[in-house]
Design brief:
This protein is α+β, with helices and mostly antiparallel strands. The protein is 36% helix and 25% strand.
């Protein structure tokens, strides 16, 4: 079986974020870093070259293939800040309605800049998602 290319490593999270060219995105990234540290109680770890993950959980596909991934995380992509809400969004429609300007994918929350959203709602979304992942993956 092939292994995922995106693996945890010992690269410096702070060095990575300090290399973000856009000033606003860099500042927003440090804010998200602190928010996720507080809500997960976990230290940030680089996954691959561009994702910052917090905590870990084990998963198993119906095929029997197993793996490990982070509970939540983010990446300051060129186009937008991408937050990984691993539980998906089906349980969080009410929070998303109050969040502010954003887009979603299957488990990705895309935000242009933090001033576009309600940070307290984002904090609640991260907290609830992490709780859900911990409870369902024990």
């Amino acid at each position: 079986m092939t292994e995922l290319k995106t693996q945890p490593n010992d690269q410096s999270v702070e060095d990575f974020l300090n290399r973000v060219e856009n000033d606003t995105k860099r500042e927003d990234s440090f804010t998200i870093l602190e928010l996720m540290k507080e809500e997960t109680g976990a230290e940030p770890i680089m996954w691959g070259d561009s994702i910052i993950g917090f905590g870990r959980y084990q998963y198993k596909y119906a095929s029997g293939r197993k793996g490990e991934w982070f509970l939540t995380g983010f990446s300051p992509r060129k186009q937008s800040l991408t937050l990984y809400i691993m539980s998906g969004f089906s349980e969080y429609e009410q929070l998303l309605e109050k969040l502010g300007k954003h887009r979603t994918g299957k488990s990705c929350l895309y935000i242009n800049k933090l001033e576009d959203i309600n940070l307290d709602i984002l904090r609640d979304l991260v907290k609830q998602s992490v709780q859900h992942m911990v409870e369902t993956n024990q």
